[in-house]
Amino acid sequence: MIFPRLFLCFCMFSLALCNEQFDSHLLPRPLIVEYGENVIRTSRVREWDDGVQLHCDSWRFAVEANNLNPWKMIPRECAEYVREYIMGRGYQFDLERVSNEAGVYAKSVELGEDGKDVWVFDIDETLLSNLPYYAGHGYGLEIFNSVEFDNWVEKGAAPAIDSSLKLYKEILSLGFKVILLTGRGEEQRGVTEENLVNAGFQNWDKLILRGSEDRGKRAVTYKSEKRSEMLTQGYRIHGNSGDQWSDLLGFSLSNRSFKLPNPMYYIP
User: Fold this and answer.
1) What is this structure's pTM?
2) What is the mean pLDDT of residues 143-150?
3) Cross-strand pairs, 227
4) Could you tell me the pLDDT band of residue 19, with boundaries at 50, 70 and 90?
5) How far apart are the first and last CA of the chain?
6) Nearest Cα to 171, choosing from 252, 259, 260, 239?
7) Which pLDDT belongs to residue 189?
8) What strands, in cross-sheet order, belong to the sheet with 236-242?
9) DSSP H helices in the chain
């Protein structure tokens, strides 16, 4: 304790020699900072923003992990969060991650010689993007309106999801048969086929849509039944890509399933 005191005294003595008037501000002192009201207000807003960010991060994680079903619309406080995610790089990175992992798996599969090795794809938010429609409906902030959505489908203007188109072509090049299994109705076959071709998707083996006997069935039941029919026909379902858990769960499951992100809506 003696040495620090001697050192401090020496510093004070040196300063006194160099300056006729000793300036106490040169000595160490407690730092006191006075923040203006606008700074305090900004800090509070930032704290609130962080709270919303964490809440919406947690909500989206619960959605993708299928821990939050069923749900009908996104939380109102997460509207801007979902918009920024969907329109930003985060969504694109997540889509690319899924497609890349699916491609790695597809390359590892040893195909038979009978042409019965299959990859199943959903269509909406899996191959084709309906973002132009959902951009006008709050990115999931509004309750789903089947009539308005069908009107959008009839335009046949949904663009391809680029990473999915790349995977689709890779799957075909590896020798898989592609079966498209969608919740769209049979009456939409023509416009769906045209939209797919215009977006770059070709050479699928089958396009399965809901027939009259499938009306009213939950998506997980309908898609499970269709996969069961594939197995009965001798197909081997190696991969299945979809944006909804109801595309992937149920029975007659694929060897591997790949869930694309979708925080905008939930289909049971």
Assistant:
1) 0.82
2) 93
3) none
4) very low
5) 73
6) 239
7) 98
8) 206-210, 177-185, 117-121, 236-242, 256-259
9) 2-18, 37-64, 79-87, 89-108, 131-134, 146-155, 162-174, 189-199, 219-232, 245-248
